[in-house]
Amino acid sequence: xxxxxxxxxxxxxxxxxxxxxxxxxxxxxxxxxxxxxxxxxxxxxxxxxxxxxxxxxxxxxxxxxxxxxxxxxxxxxxxxxxxxxxxxxxxxxxxxxxxxxxxxxxxxxxxxxxxxxxxxxxxxxxxxxxxxxxxxxxxxxxxxxxxxxxxxxxxxxxxxxxxxxxxxxxxxxxxxxxxxxxxxxxxxxxxxxxxxxxxxxxxxxxxxxxxxxxxxxxxxxxxxxxxxxxxxxxxxxxxxxxxxxxxxxxxxxxxxxxxxxxxxxxxxxxxxxxxxxxxxxxxxxxxxxxxxxxxxxxxxxxxxxxxxxxxxxxxxxxxxxxxxxxxxxxxxxxxxxxxxxxxx
Length: 344
Description:
- The chain has 344 residues and is α+β, with helices and mostly antiparallel strands.
- It has 9 helices and 11 strands.
């Protein structure tokens, strides 16, 4: 049996073969390994539950039978026919593998333990398997708690601290991505995990590594988009670049700020997304009863969600501003910023 764990060093991983059927023992999956297998029956993982479903993938929580480590197992269905659509799905899988490994050193980016392919699927074994779900679920639970007649103050305080730290950690994570030439292209609460009180970016299938072709700007019909959080230039199929990520994160920040301020969702959001109501949202934020410790975020959110992409701040500037504030980032992200003008 050949068990060749090969770390990805090129555009596509080099797979070791795990096809020996003579042994009844579980197959050993090593960190950074990429494997080809015929059957998953001898893999050392026990299914726990479904974590989520996407247009071409399902994510399950699995447990390693020996080590008891938990993983998020992302299964991407690879079409049988080698059509153009099938090739695009396959390329999306290899793209995600390569990008996550490129971003492996940041604490707020999902980690890739190993990969394997079967005749009909590509699988990523990811960590962490978030113990508190995604940010969308977390924000919904926070709102439910706020609306309870008898609030559990200890739970509310704990969740408030997690959300406050998330502003700095998410901006730091985005600054790191962009420094590596990666555009995420689908930043939204559903693609941000919450694990042990820390936020983690995930789902890089639609992301773009601008180092591959030297092009950071794209235009035309997007491969995929989430209307609620995407920038105006994306909705209009216009030229877009790293600034579109800033806009999407600004929408996420706006949503977090509204929830932390116990404010209702703005009217029209469900139909038009943030881009359709952003002008009125800017007015609302400037007049809303937002607590003093959060008020500095108003100018940041407004700047990040400017309709003119050239007026949006860089993620470094956003990160420097937020991570200099006490309790608005984790210890890994907190730092004293250089002498730069504040966002206003």
